[in-house]
Specification:
The complex is a heterodimer of chains A (286) and B (289).
Chain A lengths: L1 H46 L3 H6 L11 H8 L1 H34 E2 L3 H12 L3 H14 L6 H25 L3 H9 L4 H12 L1 H17 L2 H5 L8 H4 L4 E2 L2 E2 L1 H21 L4 H5 L5
Antiparallel strand pairs in A: 2-3
Chain B lengths: L4 E2 L3 H27 L1 E5 L2 E4 L3 H8 L1 H31 L4 H12 L6 H11 L6 H8 L10 H29 L3 H9 L4 H29 L3 H6 L11 H11 L3 H32 L1
Antiparallel strand pairs in B: 2-3
The chains are: A mainly alpha (286), B mainly alpha (289).
């Protein structure tokens, strides 16, 4: 009895302490997110200003609100085709990566075979190869097979880091599916392709979604290879943005508007995979 | 550890991946190897020079400086991003709508194209039109990333911290979510301090994700190119010229194919070595589980 009386205030003090720590944590998080969003807010703010306003001084809200910068992008085909090109090769890359990575990831998660570990490491090492190393050879390779300045060239070049990533993530998700399911399906008379498409793929739907998201993301943010392998027809938006530098100085408003438009696709897709993002980044190994 | 079935037919399933990656990886790599042992004047005049370029690269002081700068940079950002990422992860709410919102907001920088990240900071850091630059001059710091090497370096570090801390935070967050509530209850009964909970419950659970996080951050910072290229172009002087920058300058700018190829190979081997160490560590840890 005595001891419980003593304990009661101690517990509530501990609870109060925990609540304080919680509040402090909330505050810290809000502060972090605000600092995180500040540069983006500045970009958005700037994209709605005219160039004269940008250069005449700082203001936290556009005094002379204008959509002119966006209008310029959407009315000029050399600008908006950049977005179309980017989305086009990113989608192609996503489809290719998933198609080849699905069977391979299944093999890695279910079977042991000669050289499997070496193969896996070799794939990983490609994810780690600096694109700068391959710049010139890529240019020559794709020129010599006549693929220079096509979407498929960029999509294939990006496969060098999206395919290993896709295999890693999918393998992580597939290892979470119990093997008994495979065996039961075979006993029930399913052939391998039928089992794979009808039973297995639906089971790892979320994993496939996350993988697609990561292929999208890494292909979308890459510029160096995409810029090197294209000149006119398949030029990505990221490379077109460099055009805002001209003899009369930078067109800051236009640059900011183009930047804002490149952020939007990412923000749209992340909503769908918000609960799996971390697992994907951990290569399916949390 | 679940046992896997031994079956060499699995190679058939791996074949498409092998072919597609080999096309984009082995052929260019062999081209690089080919260049690295030749002196090339034009496509028809080339001489075999053996290991000369490798000797030259190994003794080139510019590259030593770039390598040193690279290591300092990579370790600096790791030293900032890993603790900061853990802190952010510990502060993130675990349940409800707040959790989803926090996840999405924190992940935003990861989805911005790398050159746009450079652009954002290029604008943000300018004293005349950028909030950060204006703030620095307001508090009396003479800050100009375009002319002062130290400022340029700090801006690149700050940009990387802004860009990639979310990755570490997300990884740690998912690691923390994997800890069963029972552990915390036990800690509460033992009246463990906040620090003890972190040190003996949360940190051990985080090692796995942290190794992956450190691996990814080390590799990606080691091949950083686009962001400093847009922000500073490697300058002022060569204060933000990291390895990739140096390589591209040599290969495309001066068109020194032979030395650039030898440099590429050395660069790739360094990364491969570090990569292998991490890989074996991760694989061994999974075996222990």
């Amino acid at each position: 009895m005595q001891s419980s009386k003593e304990q009661a205030p101690v517990f509530s003090r501990a609870e109060r302490k925990a609540r304080n720590a919680n509040l402090r944590g909330r505050f810290g998080l809000v502060l972090y997110v605000v600092l995180l969003l500040l540069p983006i807010y500045w970009l958005v703010n700037m994209s709605f200003k005219t160039n004269t306003e940008i250069l005449s001084g700082l203001s936290f809200f556009p005094a002379d609100f204008t959509l002119e910068n966006y209008a310029k992008i959407f009315s000029d085909s050399t600008w908006y085709m950049g977005y179309v090109n980017s989305i086009f090769y990113v989608s192609m890359n996503m489809v290719i990566s998933l198609l080849v990575a699905l069977p391979a990831a299944y093999a890695f998660s279910r079977y042991r075979f000669i050289g499997d570990k070496h193969m896996f490491f070799w794939l990983l090492s490609n994810r780690m190869a600096p694109p700068a190393v391959f710049l010139l050879p890529f240019f020559q390779l794709y020129s010599s097979v006549g693929l220079f300045d096509t979407h498929i060239a960029v999509a294939l070049a990006h496969c060098i880091f999206t395919v290993p990533l896709a295999v890693w993530i999918l393998e992580g998700f597939m290892s979470g599916v119990p093997r008994e399911i495979d065996e039961t399906a075979y006993i029930d008379g399913y052939s391998f392709p039928k089992f794979f498409v009808r039973i297995f793929i639906p089971l790892i739907r979320s994993g496939i979604g996350v993988t697609a998201f990561f292929c999208f993301m890494f292909s979308w943010v890459e510029l160096l290879l995409a810029r090197t392998l294209t000149s006119v027809d398949a030029k990505p938006i990221a490379a077109i943005m460099t055009r805002t530098v001209s003899a009369s100085g930078m067109d800051w408003g236009l640059l900011a508007a183009a930047g804002v438009l490149t952020i939007i696709p990412g923000m749209l897709v992340i909503y769908f995979v918000r609960n799996h993002v971390a697992k994907g980044f951990a290569l399916g190994r949390v | 550890m679940q046992t896997k079935v031994e079956n060499n037919k699995a190679w058939l399933l791996v074949m498409p991946v092998f072919l597609i990656v080999a096309f984009s990886a082995i052929i260019p790599l062999m081209t690089v190897v080919n260049y690295s042992v030749q002196d090339i004047f034009d496509p028809y005049t080339r001489y075999f020079v053996g290991t000369e370029w490798f000797k030259q690269v190994m003794l080139d002081s510019r590259l030593h400086e770039a390598l040193l700068r690279q290591f300092i940079y990579s370790f600096t950002i790791l030293a900032i991003e890993v603790p900061l990422g853990i802190c952010v992860a510990l502060m993130m709410p675990t349940k409800g709508r707040g959790a989803s919102l926090a996840l999405i907001l924190v992940a935003i920088p990861l989805l911005i194209p790398w050159n746009v990240v450079g652009t954002i900071w290029q604008i943000f850091g300018r004293a005349d039109i950028g909030l950060f630059g204006a703030f620095m001059s307001y508090i009396g710091v003479d800050y100009n990333y375009a002319s002062n090497p130290m400022d340029a370096w700090l801006t690149v570090v700050l940009m990387d911290v802004w860009h990639w801390t979310p990755l570490v935070a997300l990884l740690c967050y998912s690691g923390l979510r994997a800890i069963p509530e029972v552990y915390y209850q036990a800690a509460r009964i033992d009246r463990a301090s906040r620090w003890a909970v972190f040190r003996y419950i949360q940190l051990p659970k985080l090692t796995n994700v942290l190794i992956i996080g450190v691996l990814l951050r080390f590799m990606d910072s080691f091949m950083i190119y686009t962001e400093p290229f847009v922000l500073t172009g490697g300058g002022p002087g060569s204060s933000t010229t990291f390895l990739s920058q140096s390589l591209v300058q040599q290969a495309i700018g001066q068109f020194d194919l032979g030395p650039a190829a030898a440099f590429s190979l050395v660069y790739f081997l360094i990364i491969l070595l570090v990569c292998w160490v991490f890989y074996t560590t991760i694989m061994n840890m999974q075996k222990d589980k």
